[in-house]
Amino acid sequence: MRYEQFGNQYVLRLEPGEEVRSKLTEFIEQENIGGGYFIAFGAFCRARLRYFDVAAKEYRNHEIDQQVEVVSLLGNIAWVDGKPKIHMHVAVSDGQTRTYSGDMEEGYARPTLELFLTKLPGEIRREKDPESGLDLLSLPHEMGVRRLPKRRKAA
User: Fold this and answer.
1) Neighbouring C-alpha atoms within 13 Å toward the C-beta of 105
2) What gap in Å lies between CA 137 and CA 23, rounded to an integer?
3) Minimal CA–CA distance to 64: which of 79, 48, 83?
4) Which end of the chain has less neighbouring CB within 10 Å, N or C?
């Protein structure tokens, strides 16, 4: 991976075969990035997308084992238990322009992935939400919260 810094922003380029989550995690630790967000464009030769099943409180995997174009990749950076936690969503398109999208677990660049990262001035943390089981952003301020009503079960 190659990169250049412009103040609080970075431009990264992944090389063929590099896995985006692992390379980005390594970079975040190296550059001491406490929080931020990013976008990326490029292509993958293989990817694993996930869908969170709210009722089961678990992710369902979808393997993509073919060359795909990265139409859009968005994500953020926070920390959990002293380690970076990257949350990414992606949309990819195959050779017939069919699109697949979801939470991104892994993706292998080919021929490249160009990532534009903005570093925030503080540290963002996540903590386990007992209701969903997910690591949610831990934010100190709260506005009047309006919750969705619970669904009634059919009789």
Assistant:
1) 13
2) 22
3) 48
4) C
**Predicted local confidence at residue 105, as pLDDT:** 97
Residue 116: give the domain boundaries: 2-123
Q: What is the CATH number of the domain that holds 55?
A: 3.30.1330.80
| Partners of residue 20 on adjacent β-strands | none
| Residues found in the chain | 155
150 within domain boundaries: no
- Please give the DSSP secondary-structure letter assigned to residue 145: -
The C-alpha atoms of residue 86 and residue 36 are separated, in whole angstroms, by 10
CA distances to 30, 39, 42, 43, 70 from 111, rounded to whole Å, are 24, 17, 8, 6, 11
Q: How many domains does the chain have?
A: 1
Q: Dump pLDDT digits (tens) for 42-82.
A: 999 999 999 999 999 999 999 999 999 999 999 999 999 99
* Residue 23 within any structural domain of the chain: yes
- Residue 141 is classified by DSSP as -
- Is pLDDT of 149 > 90? no
